Amino acid sequence: MYLLKNKEVRQTLFWQIAFSAAASVATFFIDTSAGWIVTALSCILILIYLISTYHRYKQISNLASDINKLLHGDCSIDFESYSEGELEILHSEIYKMTVRLREQQLRLLNDKVYLADSIADISHQIRTPLTSINLMVELLADAKTNDARKPRLIHELQVMLSRIDWLITTLLKISKLDAGTVGFKQDTLNMEELIRKACSPFLVPIELRSQELIIRTNGNFCGDISWTSEAIGNIVKNCMEHTPPHGKIEIEASENPLYCEIVIKDSGNGIAKEDLPHIFDRFYKGKNSDEKSFGVGLALTRMIISGQNGTIKAENRLPSGAIFTVRFYKGTV
Q1: How far apart are CA 277 and CA 289, in angstroms?
Q2: Which residues 6+ apart lie within 8 Å of 55 measured at CB?
Q3: Is residue 268 left, alpha or beta, with left meaning phi > 0 and alpha meaning psi from -120 to 50?
Q4: What is the spatial distance between Cα 307 and Cα 176, in angstroms, rounded to a whole number?
Q5: What confidence tens digit (pLDDT) does each residue in 207-219 have?
Q6: Cα distances (angstroms) measured from residue 126 to each of 132, 135, 147
Q7: What is the pTM assigned to this prediction?
Q8: Which residues of 112-127 are buried (b: 16+ CB within 10 A; e: fewer)?
C-alpha cells in the first residue's frame, strides 16, 4: 500500500496501534467486556485515520497532477473540488500562483510578439538607408561617374549615415527607458531657458523654411533638463516638418501649483483622424509623414514624459494645425 511508504503515516499508525493495544490489555484486566469494546473502538479509530489519510493524500496527489498539467500549459484546471481544511488553504495559495503564472505567460507571449515586430521594424528602417548608401558607394567607385556629381553623392551619403546614427541612438535610448535604467534628475531651470535649449537645434532649419517661432513662457521647470529638452525638441521637429513655409510654430510654457505645462502649436495640415490614436506608437508613420521619418521620435518623447510623472496629448486645432499639450505633475496623479 503506497500510503504506508510515507514515514509520517507509519510513525503515527505505529503509535496509534501501540497505545490502542496497551489500552485494550489494561481494560481486559479490569473487565473483559470493556476490553472488547475498547479494542473495537481502537480498530475503528485506526481505520478512520487510514481512510481519512488516504483520502487526503489522494487529494494532494490529484492536486500535484493538476499543478503538473498547469506547468505544461493546461490552463483549464478547476480547483473548486479542493474545499476541506488545509487543502482549502493550499488551494487558495495555488490559485493565486496560477493567476500570476497565467499573467506572466501572457506578458511573455506579448513581449515575444512585440520583440519580433520591433526587430522586423528596426531591420526595415535600417535596410532602407543602407540600400541607398550601397548604391551611392557603387556610383562613387564607378570611374564613369562624373566628377561634378561626386560632391552631391558624398553629401547624400553623409545625410544617410546621420539618419542611421540618429536612429540607432534613439533606439538605444528607448531600450534604456524600457529597461528602467534611466535615472531622471530633479533640476530646476527657468521655463524660457528650457524651451530655448530644446529649440536651439532647429533654429536654422526653421529660418531656412521661412517659418516663425513664437515663444511665451513664465515660471520654472523642475525635472531632468537634458531628457526633457530632447522630448520637447522632438515635438518641435515634428511641428516644423509639418508646417508649410511662412507658417507659425507657437510654444506656450507656464507653471502653476499643480503642474508645469508646455503647449506646442503649429499651423500645418493637422493630424489625420485615423492617426491620432497611434501618433505616439513606436514605428508608427501617419499618412502625412515624411518618407524619411522613422516613427520613433514621438514614441521616445512619450516615454521620457511619462517617466517623469507627465502626460502628453495630441489633437487638431482650428482652423488648421496640430497642438501638443505636455504636463509635468508635481505630485502623484
Answers
A1: 15
A2: none
A3: beta
A4: 12
A5: 999 999 999 999 9
A6: 10, 15, 29
A7: 0.62
A8: eeeeeebeebbeebbe
